[in-house]
Specification:
Elements: E1 2-4, H1 9-13, H2 24-29, E2 32-37, E3 43-47, E4 53-59, E5 65-67, H3 75-80, E6 90-91, E7 97-98, E8 102-105, E9 108-111, E10 120-121, E11 134-139, E12 142-149, E13 160-168, E14 173-182, E15 186-187, E16 191-192, E17 210-213, E18 217-219, E19 232-233, E20 245-246, H4 247-251, H5 256-261, E21 265-269, E22 280-286, E23 292-298, E24 302-306, E25 330-334, E26 349-350, E27 356-366
Bound molecules: alpha-D-galactopyranose (GLA).
Length: 367
């Protein structure tokens, strides 16, 4: 059930830059794979490197299993990948972008890495996707991972204790529970960065997948993909996924926001109803070719719908197929990007004594 993922690790380590956050010794001894399996044969494999989901075997309409999560074959490839796509990882301390890598909190200005043009992305140079997590417990259908980010790690204030629990239910749901506490006020925005291709990883683009997003508004961005602060209606725009439509239908439309994102790479404002923190429907994705359906629910207020615009066809995936441009999509449930600098967005600040709790459910079915 628990296997070492070290085979090619040590050899490739020589080319790994120091900023990956993993030493040769850790790489050789501490990286594990753990497979969750339910009574229907669905399987989800997780590594403690970055709390990454490395594969998800789910059934199509005829009951055939395929791996619907993009990923690399070895830990070394996760570390060395030139495109840094964040395949399958837990992203933090702050998922998505913070403008110019700076924010002010309680009168103090903090400076973060600018690892995405002028901006900070996905927690910095060594975000939570590039560290080794502790496996606190693991069973056939659940794994509980923890990580303690130090005060000023990647520039963020506060020692932050984070946990992520993946639970695979017999209803074919992968439940992701996040929790965190801190000893100083700090921004926290954790998300899961799996790229899905419901036809199976490496099987072409996702442009034919049909998507419904439960969101009447999205947050338009500037040229650095930082929200302008506006919550804009999706009505009569290519961003309207309130009724299911294929990803490809409008993606090449002439539109300023699509041009800035090089496709869809935006945060949608989820329709939350009365309670802002209850688990509500975020998205439904259907692949007409295989019948697979992914339904995403979350306690978060937003979802970054990203259509693999930065995949260039140069990465080779687990089964030896290359990942084409738009060969996967992400549904990164989250608070809105750049929240620490946007007073009108829901707050991402966690104070000492408070508990950060967030849940996202990825449910699989077929029709
Ligand atoms: C997120 C971002 C994208 C891109 C990917 C990783 O989805 O919004 O712009 O950085 O992560 O490639």
């Amino acid at each position: 059930m628990t296997k070492l993922l070290t085979l090619t690790f040590t050899a490739i380590f020589m080319t790994v830059p120091a900023s990956t956050g993993v030493t040769a010794e850790e790489a050789a001894t501490s990286t594990r794979l753990h497979t969750l399996k339910n009574s229907n044969g669905m399987e989800v494999t997780v590594t403690n490197y970055g709390a990454i989901i490395t594969s998800m075997l789910t059934a199509d309409r005829d009951g055939n299993l395929a791996d619907v999560a993009l990923g690399h074959r070895t830990a070394a490839e996760y570390i060395a990948a030139s495109e840094k796509p964040y395949f399958g990882a837990v992203v933090g301390r702050f998922g998505n972008r913070i403008a110019e890598g700076t924010f002010t909190l309680d009168g103090e200005t903090y400076t973060l890495a600018t690892n995405n043009g002028d901006n900070h992305l996905h927690g910095g140079n060594v975000g939570f996707d590039k560290v080794i997590w502790d496996v606190k417990s693991a069973s056939d259908q659940s794994i509980h991972l923890t990580y303690v980010a130090k005060d000023m790690e990647e520039g963020y204030p506060g020692n932050l204790s984070v946990s992520v629990t993946y639970t695979l239910t017999d209803e074919n749901q992968l439940v992701v529970d996040y929790a965190a506490t801190t000893d100083k006020a700090t921004p926290v925005n954790l998300t899961q960065h799996t790229y899905f291709n419901l036809a199976g990883e490496g099987n072409g683009t996702v442009l034919d997948h049909e998507v419904m997003l439960n969101a009447d508004r999205f947050t338009p961005v500037d040229s650095g993909l930082i929200p302008t602060g506006e919550l804009r209606s999706v009505k009569d725009t290519p961003f309207d996924f309130t009724s299911p439509k294929s990803i490809g239908r409008d993606i090449e439309t002439e539109n300023e926001q699509l041009a800035l994102g090089k496709g869809y790479d935006h945060n949608w404002v989820l329709n939350k109803g009365v309670s802002a923190t209850e688990l509500t429907l975020a998205a439904v994705v259907y692949d007409p070719a295989t019948g697979r359906v992914l339904t995403v629910s979350t306690t978060e207020p937003g979802v970054q719908f990203y259509t693999g615009n930065f995949l260039t066809g140069t990465l080779t995936g687990k089964s030896g197929k290359t990942y084409s441009h738009r060969g996967g999509f992400c549904l990164e449930t989250q608070h809105f990007p750049d929240s620490p600098n946007q007073p009108d967005f829901p707050s991402t600040i966690l104070a000492p004594g408070e508990k950060y709790e967030s849940q996202t459910v990825f449910a699989f079915s077929a029709r």
